[in-house]
Design goal:
The chain is built from 10 helices and 12 strands. Helix 3 packs across helix 4 and helix 3 packs parallel to helix 5. The strands form 2 sheets. The chain has an 8-stranded mixed β-sheet, sandwiched between helices. Strands 2-1-4-5 form a 4-stranded antiparallel β-sheet, covered by helices on one side. Helix content is 32%, strand content 24%. Strand 1 and strand 2 form a beta hairpin. The longest helix has 18 residues. The structure holds adenosine-5'-triphosphate and magnesium ion. The site of magnesium ion has 3 residues, from helix 1.
Length: 326
């Protein structure tokens, strides 16, 4: 068995969409481009990046809700595409996902008990008595009172609903939890409670997370390693402090400066919005980068190691943020 619970090798995903006004005219969206990453047992791996950069698409590829156009997703070293149906069923137990919106993630006609029982029915061979016992255990684990077992989603607060979604995801004893912005829809005090719950679960049960968030403070609070996604590509990856304190990609630096600005420090970075189409040639950030040079327009930079474990896809990575030079 490898130390990696999850490995992505050159994973790409494109969608074909039909043009609204031009019938028969197809448009291709390259949502994820050549992404390679590993998540180890028990680690919290953060994924940040602007809206539309492909984070949720990557999350859906990992839990096999979608198939990659090319490349491989390996769970415990085994390619999902080559798994036999029985292995896919057991793999589905091990990879669970918590979505951003706890309002739409639950069926309004199902009680909390039924929502948590569903994955137990589908993915385990537990008896009715064992399922009921497990539901009570899960309610306790996520800090919900037993009386809510018979409640419907409309009778719950947003934080309670997200706890139900987490209990449901934990039900089949997964080893990897993919969290796609699980706290974005919640207010700050509930956010903190859910983040602490996720951290405690990781510590007590040795779960690994792939944790997606827009919020650098949340990523900083929770993650051990971090990757930055932009226009479908990973442009930087490293330990939490390598990326969040010493980010070397100009785009990562914009994210850090924007977070500092909103926390009351520094100035808002100059970053033009992403055009709908990424440049065909060269670096995917060159049309928005203040440091771009001729080579950036010509040549696509590969993700290369700056320091052990710290990888950056930039021809001219910025030097340490602390000395203020670039
Ligand atoms: N089913 C689909 N069909 C066509 N295009 C899609 C589909 N799903 C995603 N896309 C496109 O793929 C790109 C990446 O979308 P994705 O939802 O993965 O981004 P994201 O990083 O999760 O954004 P956000 O932070 O806003 O949630 C976007 O351009 C989106 O429009
Ligand atoms: Mg998303």
């Amino acid at each position: 068995m490898t130390a990696d619970v999850l490995m992505l090798e050159n994973v790409s995903k494109s969608y074909r969409t039909v043009g609204k006004w031009q019938y028969g005219h197809h448009h291709e969206v390259l949502a994820v481009r050549n992404v390679s990453l590993c998540v180890q047992y028990g680690e919290i791996y953060g994924l940040i990046g602007e809206s539309g950069s492909g984070k949720s698409t990557l999350a859906r590829l990992i839990v096999a809700l979608e198939q990659p156009t090319s490349g491989s997703v390996l769970i415990d070293g085994v390619n999902i595409a080559e798994m036999k149906p029985i292995a896919v069923r057991s793999m589905r137990r091990e990879m669970q996902i918590v979505f951003q919106d706890p309002y739409s993630a639950l069926d309004p006609s199902q009680t909390v008990e039924a929502a948590i029982e569903e994955p137990l029915l589908n993915l385990t061979a537990d008896s009715k008595a064992r399922r009921m016992q497990r539901i009570l255990e899960l309610l306790h684990e996520v800090g919900l009172p037993e009386r809510l077992a018979r409640a419907y989603p409309h009778q719950l607060s947003g934080g309670e609903r997200q706890r139900v979604c987490i209990a449901r995801a934990l039900a089949p004893h997964p080893r990897l939890l993919v969290c796609d912005e699980p706290v974005s829809a919640l207010d700050k005090s509930i956010q903190a409670q859910i983040l602490n719950l996720l951290r405690d679960l990781q510590r007590d049960q040795g779960l690994a997370y792939l944790f997606i968030s827009h919020d650098l403070a949340v990523i900083n609070h929770l993650c051990t390693r971090v990757a930055v996604m932009l226009r479908g590509r990973i442009v930087e990856e490293g330990d939490r402090l390598q990326v969040l304190l010493h980010g070397a990609h100009p785009y990562t630096r914009c994210l850090i400066e924007a977070a500092a600005y909103f926390a009351g420090n520094g100035v808002l970075p100059r970053l033009t919005p992403s055009a709908s189409k990424a440049p065909e040639n060269g670096c995917i950030f060159h049309d928005r980068c203040l440091h771009a040079q001729a080579r950036c327009r010509r040549e696509t930079p590969s993700l290369r190691e700056l320091m052990p474990g710290h990888r950056v896809a930039c021809h001219f990575p910025l030097s340490d943020v602390r000395d203020g030079s670039s």
